[in-house]
From TrEMBL:
Domain of life: Bacteria
Organism: Streptomyces yatensis
Domain annotation HTH merR-type: ranges: 11-79
Name of this protein: MerR family transcriptional regulator
InterPro entries the record matches: DNA-bd_dom_put_sf, MerR-type_HTH_dom, MerR_fam
Keyword terms of this UniProt record: DNA-binding
Length: 246
């Protein structure tokens, strides 16, 4: 059953967990001492870690890559666990970054997630979602990073699109969106941010003012592209709506 698959959590000894997370055992011990990860399950003298710990370690790695300190990450984790929203301030994000809107995370039990996607929550789909960063495991709960993305995925599955296909499309879309984001960031950095800094103006306010322009361009271009695609497919359909030999 899907629920049992969602509940299934693999366990690891410390060396295996460190290897899967791409860190050393010494680093893992340090994280545990700093309480950056939950305590392991004890079986006598053996400590057992699971996929919850692996997800947390991957989250820590991602934050470190973005330049956050371990102290800031510890505060972020504490804020996340207490339900606080002011994570941008806690992490010391500059105004230009903190001003961008954040997605609303959703906490679900494994059973609720399985029910939400009607049997599509397989071990493979869970792994893909974790790799994409859509899901993280926190204690006994699963956290989806975005209410909007969760609802869109749910609607697509309701319309008959397999969840595995939705996730595959999401990975492809992310590659394109990352390229679009790079284009806009370069544009602002080259032609706006540098001039604002020279004039002593607030870069965060400028970015916030121009952000809707980037969103509007992407929305308009996507609408035009989908219209072109629909016209092309319509032109390829023979009269009467049938293709091939009669």
């Amino acid at each position: 059953m899907a629920t049992s698959e969602a509940d299934e959590v693999r366990e690891y000894r410390m060396p295996e967990l460190a290897e899967k997370a791409g860190i050393t055992v010494r680093t893992l011990r340090f994280y545990r001492e700093r309480k950056l990860i939950p305590p392991p399950r004890r079986d006598g003298r053996i400590a057992w870690y699971n996929d919850h710990h692996l997800a947390r370690l991957r989250t820590i790695a991602g934050l470190l890559e973005r330049g956050h300190t371990l102290g800031g990450i510890a505060e972020l984790i504490a804020a996340f666990e207490s339900g606080r929203r002011d994570v941008g301030e806690l992490l010391g994000l500059p105004g230009a970054v903190a001003s961008w809107p954040s997605e609303t995370p959703v906490r679900l039990t494994p059973e609720a997630l399985a029910d939400y996607f009607h049997g599509e929550v397989t071990a493979e789909n869970l792994t893909t979602s974790l790799d994409l960063g859509y899901l993280a495991v926190d204690g006994d709960e699963i956290v989806h990073l975005s209410r909007r993305l969760l609802d869109v995925s749910h609607t697509l599955v309701e319309q008959g699109v397999p969840l595995a296909a939705v996730l595959a499309a999401a990975r492809e879309v992310r590659e394109h969106v990352d390229a679009i984001a790079e284009t806009f960031v370069t544009l602002l950095r080259t032609h706006v941010a540098a001039d604002d800094l020279e004039r002593g103006e607030d870069v965060g306010e400028t970015v916030e003012r121009l952000r809707p322009l980037a969103t509007s361009v992407v929305d308009a271009e996507l609408t035009l592209a989908m219209n072109r695609r629909m016209r092309t497919e319509g032109d390829e359909t023979p009269p009467g709506g049938h293709s091939g030999d009669q």
